[in-house]
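=== Structure Prediction Worksheet ===
Name of assembly: unnamed complex
Input type: mixed (protein and possibly other molecules)
Chain count: two
Listed entries:
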Amino acid sequence: MLIAFYRILRFAGQNFWRNIWLSLVTVTILTLSLISVSALSIISTLSNEALSRLEEKINISVYLKPTLKLAEIDSFKKQIEALPDLKSVNLINADEALKSFKERYQNNPLIAESLLAIGSNPLGSSLTIKVSSDQGYQKILDELESDKFKAYIQEARFDDYRRVISTVNDLTGKLKRIGYGVSLVFVLIALLVVFNTIRLNIYTHREEIGIMRLVGATSWFIRAPLMVESIFYAALATAICALIFYPALSALQPYVSSFFDGFDFNLINYYNERWFIFWPALFVGCSLLSILASTVAMRKYLKI
Amino acid sequence: MPLIEFRNVSKYYPGNIVAVKDITLIIEEGEFVSIVGQSGTGKTTLVRLLIAEEPLSEGRILVAGWDITNIHTNEVPILRKQIGVVFQDFKLLPTKTVFENVAFALEVSNADKNRIQSIVPQLLKIVGLQEKAERFPHELSGGEQQRVVIARALAHRPKILVADEPTGNLDSINTKEIVELLKKINEFGTTVILVTHNKDTVNELKRRVIMIDQGRVQSDHQKGRYLLK
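=== Predicted Assembly ===
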């Protein structure tokens, strides 16, 4: 069995090498297909990440009256926490709010001067409310506007990122559709090229194949090197794609960092953490594509 | 039990072309049989039917009791190991040496390296090419190339050796050498079927001669001669 395997590998290698230019064209087309699929994966990753970050940003900021005492604030918070569909309620007291305000505008001397002129902390405490579903925000806002909370609330603001989310969704949807289209074109070209390569291989080896049949080779032994050869193409294309992929990610990272301003998201790390799924999936997909084209070519042209 | 049995075998090609018609033959183990006839009379078709290269249209073919009439594709390699075949056009791989060409038959059948190293020199000795094992086909004469093909055909120690016009491309000296080699192989116990239209070769052999004409058996003589019409 091992001997047969070794000989099949050897024959496949010979096929590959003896038609080196044809093999290189096939590998190039498969590589282009893999690159387009990888690009699609990057677009998908970035859009999913952007959307989840934006979703995290949706919240209701409730600014409390500065005159409220600590006990009143606690009581209000408890009442809010009792409302349904809440994900989290985070209290920022007046001192923390001032500190954060100063940090945010540390480069703005006008604001610093104004704060000095006021003398005391003009900011009140605030609550940041996150809701577990999109629809829940309006309910909570309605609740906050009811009379029972009027005594506590100075202003309630709903930072609505839904329009941004919808824009990002639309944009990534379009990008994905273009990506799918380009990938499909490359996949179809790859199918045709692999089909043609194996067909030409069968043609150039027709004498050898005829002799193999004559001297008692099984049809499996005749087909297997062609099949293995198509897996060689896939392996090489995946390797070349990986060699292009990581430098491309490095080049892309500064733009990603500026896009996710303030968030720690690293594309290279993302794919490094998932290499054991991503690359085998690309290789298996590419091999299946290649094997499919070879099988069709063999069915059509290899008369055993 | 006969080694080869053709029972009312016919082969038609599309357009109602009759290649062979109602052939009934029995070839016993150890025989040396010449199948003769002019070009296009169906001799090669008989060989192709025997090695399951083509399906027959009617009748049955049995090899050592094995009915190969409707042989499955997977079983063809088993049959081919029992029937060594030699063709007029050699069918050698030009990029392989003499040794590698003979070894190729064993390689494709999963023979291990040790077996190949022991069998191939023996085969080359039988055909008298042990000194030219490292030569390439283009460095050999036509007769030598045909001897390599015979060595390759014997690689699986077949029961039957079918030689279809093996001397068609050879001069008279090389023809004699090949025929002598076939006789030697037959003496070792292998059944030899020689398909030819070479009258002199057949007449010198003085063995069984089956004459085919227009796809039918015209005559079958144990110590026959090839008499031209």
